[in-house]
Amino acid sequence: xxxxxxxxxxxxxxxxxxxxxxxxxxxxxxxxxxxxxxxxxxxxxxxxxxxxxxxxxxxxxxxxxxxxxxxxxxxxxxxxxxxxxxxxxxxxxxxxxxxxxxxxxxxxxxxxxxxxxxxxxxxxxxxxxxxxxxxxxxxxxxxxxxxxxxxxxxxxxxxxxxxxxxxxxxxxxxxxxxxxxxxxxxxxxxxxxxxxxxxxxxxxxxxxxxxxxxxxxxxxxxxxxxxxxxxxxxxxxxxxxxxxxxxxxxxxxxxxxxxxxxxxxxxxxxxxx
Length: 273
Hints:
The protein is an alpha/beta fold. It is built from 5 helices and 17 strands.
């Protein structure tokens, strides 16, 4: 068995403070024996306005946030999934890609996935409406499911709102995914009713482990996120969860157990086009 960690943060508009908090959690995960630690969406910056992230956009492969990630992974000898990093869109200064980047334990980048499904919705909460329009300042990634081989198994990448689109995860499983990563900054209202349900559903229907890092608490501008970072097994059991507070939520992955489950309960083989 191998340990993995879903990290939970309360990121704000101070990049240096956020990166320091992220490193403390990565260090804690490594000290717990985790071979892979996954950071939440927007781990490096959550400003009061969506436009604020544009000031922190980095060229692909070059910038202080990406340098931090490489150094942190190498320093603590652990694979790191960076929930999202604002990566510049060539020729479009008004938008960024929400890029989920993976670094190996030597600090080398192993994968990049750009968030495909963008959160353009009105969320009703306590008599008022919270409006989100991610596509205004985020460019959607191309339909290109991304998996990467890690020491804990083949990992399928996704981000937050993606979790509501099961066809993406089935494509990841078709590409060999044994684990799914769903870093998020889920709203408190939608998280309360849907977060755990969605994580467990993606685990059960794909017979995969799910690593679900999360933002928690209140952020600049008054946005509230649900927290409840968790690790879920292929049968839908929540192996570990932290409702609130900064945390490294550690769960254990048993690929032999997963293999036996997929053999005895071969739902993936029973599909019809």
